[in-house]
């Protein structure tokens, strides 16, 4: 398939630049495979769509304030976007600068906080924090900004430190929120528990590459940036138990889906700790996930390709046209979709 197959017209006023006052107040466009229908509801309707005994899987990554500003030794300004924390003292990062950085040079963040440029890997730099008093994560959390996606066209505000984070976020390391999870508040989670819906957690740290545009016409030629994930033995046991009792595995977000499908590559759920570069587009055969909760994504993006693979290309693209016509709110702070896996496409 070609990149142009995943294009659609999106009026800029439909891009959600701020969250709703209440997390679960968003709208929900539903694609049901059995009835082959598209319907429009509000997010709490997932309580009716998810059945007792189904397994709902969340990504519990926690967003770090991964945007840093500094200066080169020559005085030129730089903007640093953390891609991944490598260890206590090193990060992999994109650096916006007037000229490429020299290995061995230093970037000053404050009067006493400096990063040394130690390596370059394609568009990413490896940067070392030479400070014995604190870790590089501690430094990032003290002076960094929440890295809102570029399409919001605004700087992060104080509210974003809480709202661009799921209520169940635990493991620090992501530079973007697993946005499908932003719709869940504590009340909704309690209602899910009361309905005896099983809940499991995995961790996938989303990298800055999630915003990278697809630059090839033939989508099969696109290469995904690797991201780190962990799927526990406990979650794998819960997946196998849900399948054995004839219940569904429901991924909250495309990151959860990618992590689950990575852990299921052998044909059965197996614990996984490491990187994934899995690229899911139409034609992919899903092994684990039966239903997906997700947001409305960018035209021509790998995330749109994934949901087209899952729900069926024609139906998903029709749903996106419906979402535009009904003035749904798009992207990170926008509305949501419920998608059941297409039986054939």
UniProtKB/TrEMBL annotation:
<dbReference type="GO" id="GO:0005737">
    <property type="term" value="C:cytoplasm"/>
</dbReference>
<comment type="function">
    <text>Transfers and isomerizes the ribose moiety from AdoMet to the 7-aminomethyl group of 7-deazaguanine (preQ1-tRNA) to give epoxyqueuosine (oQ-tRNA).</text>
</comment>
<keyword id="KW-0963">Cytoplasm</keyword>
<dbReference type="InterPro" id="IPR036100">
    <property type="entry name" value="QueA_sf"/>
</dbReference>
<dbReference type="InterPro" id="IPR042119">
    <property type="entry name" value="QueA_dom2"/>
</dbReference>
<dbReference type="GO" id="GO:0008616">
    <property type="term" value="P:tRNA queuosine(34) biosynthetic process"/>
</dbReference>
<protein>
    <recommendedName>
        <fullName>S-adenosylmethionine:tRNA ribosyltransferase-isomerase</fullName>
        <ecNumber>2.4.99.17</ecNumber>
    </recommendedName>
</protein>
<keyword id="KW-0671">Queuosine biosynthesis</keyword>
<comment type="similarity">
    <text>Belongs to the QueA family.</text>
</comment>
<comment type="pathway">
    <text>tRNA modification; tRNA-queuosine biosynthesis.</text>
</comment>
<dbReference type="GO" id="GO:0051075">
    <property type="term" value="F:S-adenosylmethionine:tRNA ribosyltransferase-isomerase activity"/>
</dbReference>
<keyword id="KW-0949">S-adenosyl-L-methionine</keyword>
<dbReference type="InterPro" id="IPR003699">
    <property type="entry name" value="QueA"/>
</dbReference>
<keyword id="KW-0808">Transferase</keyword>
<dbReference type="InterPro" id="IPR042118">
    <property type="entry name" value="QueA_dom1"/>
</dbReference>
<dbReference type="Pfam" id="PF02547">
    <property type="entry name" value="Queuosine_synth"/>
</dbReference>
<keyword id="KW-0413">Isomerase</keyword>
<comment type="subunit">
    <text>Monomer.</text>
</comment>
């Amino acid at each position: 398939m070609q990149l142009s197959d995943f294009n659609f017209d999106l009026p800029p006023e439909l891009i959600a630049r701020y969250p709703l006052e209440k997390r679960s107040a968003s709208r929900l466009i539903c694609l049901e495979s059995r009835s082959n229908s598209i319907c429009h509801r509000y997010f709490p309707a997932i309580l009716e769509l998810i059945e007792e005994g189904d397994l709902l899987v969340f990504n519990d990554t926690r967003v770090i304030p991964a945007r840093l500003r500094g200066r080169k030794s020559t005085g030129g300004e730089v903007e640093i976007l953390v891609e991944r924390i490598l260890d206590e003292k090193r990060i992999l990062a994109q650096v916006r600068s007037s000229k490429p950085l020299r290995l061995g040079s230093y970037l000053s963040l404050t009067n006493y906080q400096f990063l040394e440029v130690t390596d370059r890997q394609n568009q990413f730099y490896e940067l070392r924090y030479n400070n014995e008093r604190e870790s590089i994560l501690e430094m990032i959390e003290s002076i960094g900004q929440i890295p809102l996606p570029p399409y919001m066209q605004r700087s992060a505000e104080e509210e974003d430190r809480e709202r661009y984070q799921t209520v169940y976020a635990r493991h620090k390391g992501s530079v973007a929120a697993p946005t499908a999870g932003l719709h869940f508040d504590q009340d909704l989670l309690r209602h899910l528990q009361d309905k005896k819906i099983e809940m499991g957690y995995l961790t996938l740290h989303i990298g800055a590459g999630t915003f990278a545009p697809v630059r090839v016409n033939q989508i099969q030629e696109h290469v995904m940036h690797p991201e780190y994930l962990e799927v526990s033995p406990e979650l794998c046991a819960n997946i196998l138990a849900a399948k054995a009792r004839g219940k569904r595995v429901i991924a909250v977000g495309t990151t959860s889906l990618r992590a689950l499908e990575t852990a299921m590559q052998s044909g059965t759920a197996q614990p996984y700790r490491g990187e994934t570069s899995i690229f899911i587009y139409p034609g992919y055969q899903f092994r684990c996930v039966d239903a997906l909760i997700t947001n409305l994504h960018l035209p021509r993006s790998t995330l749109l390709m994934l949901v087209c693979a899952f729900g069926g290309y024609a139906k998903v693209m029709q749903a996106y046209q419906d979402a535009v016509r009904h003035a749904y709110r798009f992207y990170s702070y926008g509305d949501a979709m419920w998608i059941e896996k297409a039986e054939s496409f």
